[in-house]
Amino acid sequence: MDKYYELTEETVIDYVNKKLVFFSKDAQFKCNEIGDGNLNLVFMVKDVKSSKSLIVKQSLPYVRAAGEDWPLDIGRGEIESRILEIEYKLTGGLVPEIYLYDNEMCCMIMEDLSDYVIMRYGLIDHEIYPNFVEQISDFIVKTLLLTSDVVMEHKEKKAYVKSFINPELCEITEDLVFTEPFNLGARNNIEASLIDFHKKIIVDDRELALEAAKMKYCFMNNAQALLHGDLHTGSIFVNKESTKVIDPEFAFYGPMAYDIGNVIANLIMNYLSAFFSMEEGAGKDEFCTYMLETIRDTVDVTKAKFLSVWDGVVTDLMAKKEGFKEFYIEQVFVETSGVCGCEMTRRTVGFAQVKDLNDIKDDQARYKAKTTNLLMAKELILNRANYVTGQDYLDLISKYCK
Ligand code: SR1
Ligand code: MG
After folding, report:
1. Which pLDDT belongs to residue 1?
2. In whole angstroms, what separates CA 13 from the centre of its chain?
3. Atom of ligand 1 nearest to the CA of 346
4. DSSP letter at 379?
5. Residue nearest to atom 8 of ligand 1 (CA)
6. Three-state SS annotation for 88-132
7. Most buried in the list 20, 32, 227, 253, measured by CB within 10 Å?
């Protein structure tokens, strides 16, 4: 058995060939470390002769973005490989195929998606993805509704809850999303021009603190469905035809709203980036219109699918009672806007931010985009019951983006 060691571009080829019969004997290998997330090593291994390729993802025993001072459970890849297999079956392949998970090396070997791009980068380049809404709404509804008590046999669901307990990764979210951004957290990462604004508008607002605390406890105490747990546009691969969701290492049983709110928040932040930083002309109107439609339709199509799929899959007698599905789904979308606001806040002032906003070159445009993002986020958290349709989000955006 292998003992754990950190792979390198030099050692990964031997490692793959030892674990898997995938490449031919005369393969000419090319290998690059391509990981740009906060946590793991990711290698693309390719045979340039046949063009066959795969991905090796290895968990590090610490947070890559912070260094060895921030240790982290190295077994998280095991949870990730299990949920990917479940999601693959539930969604008919909206996630990459896993070839192998190696417990000793904490490594996953999986399908390469090099004909896709990370959605965040595609959107920053103002690309549009015509099938995204249909596919992400399918992913959300199938992975969430079908793993909930509405559908699953309740003892089986509880066994899933137990096997997806993910305390260290959940703690990251509890701290980085639901705590530090609403306080003067030591790991916050606030650019100088925003420090006073953050303190006055976010930290000093007692009503906001209370509502953010409620959102935190909703995240921690509602084992509703098997979540992806980190469903931002950096965890989504896209091309013009297809969508693949990656990186569910933060998976656990939590509120459905956490996944949905993350998707919407990251779409909104990309819209703000385009709205405040693109030059007039140069395709700005087309791209901004596309983003607004995508935000609106992600909310409305997802909600409509929840409501239409429900009747065909519901098994629990009480969940079939008249009016219950509307009550249940409405509550999910109220919590979704609260999560959306928390994610927008943390991506502006917290430890882990987004390129969409940080890469705006012009100081004034970046300041405007970030302060607008914080003001909208605050409104979403405080008045989340008012933001439950796609049009509600568009009305909010048009109020703040003039
Ligand atoms: C320390 S990890 C920081 C962030 O990266 C992940 O993608 C999650 O979003 C987490 O909050
Ligand atoms: Mg990730």
Report:
1. 47
2. 30
3. 11
4. H
5. 230
6. HHHHCCCCCCEEEEECCCCEEEEECCCCCEEHHHHHHCCCCCCCH
7. 227
Using the atom order of ligand 1, give the atom closest to the CA of residue 230.
9
Among 36, 38, 266, which is best to mutate for testing ligand 1, by the most ligand atoms less than 8 A from CB? 38
Residue nearest (by alpha carbon) to ligand 1 atom 9: 230
Ligand 1 within 6 A of 176 CB? yes
Complete domains list, the chain, with CATH: 12-111 (3.30.200.20), 117-400 (3.90.1200.10)
How many Cα atoms occupy the beta-carbon half-sphere of 321 within 13 Å?
6
Compute the residue count for the chain: 402
The helix or strand, by DSSP H or E, that contains position 349, with its residue range, turns out to be helix 324-349
Name the residue of 80, 176, 179, 236 to mutate for ligand 1: max ligand atoms within 8 A of Cβ.
176
What is the per-residue pLDDT across 325-375, written as a single tens digit (0 to 9) for each? 999 999 999 999 999 999 999 999 999 999 999 999 999 999 999 999 999
Atom of ligand 1 minimally distant from the CA of 351: 3
Across 19-91, the runs of DSSP E, i.e. the strands, are: 29-33, 40-47, 53-59, 62-63, 67-71
| pTM of the complete model | 0.98
Residue 243 CA to residue 380 CA, distance in Å, equals: 27
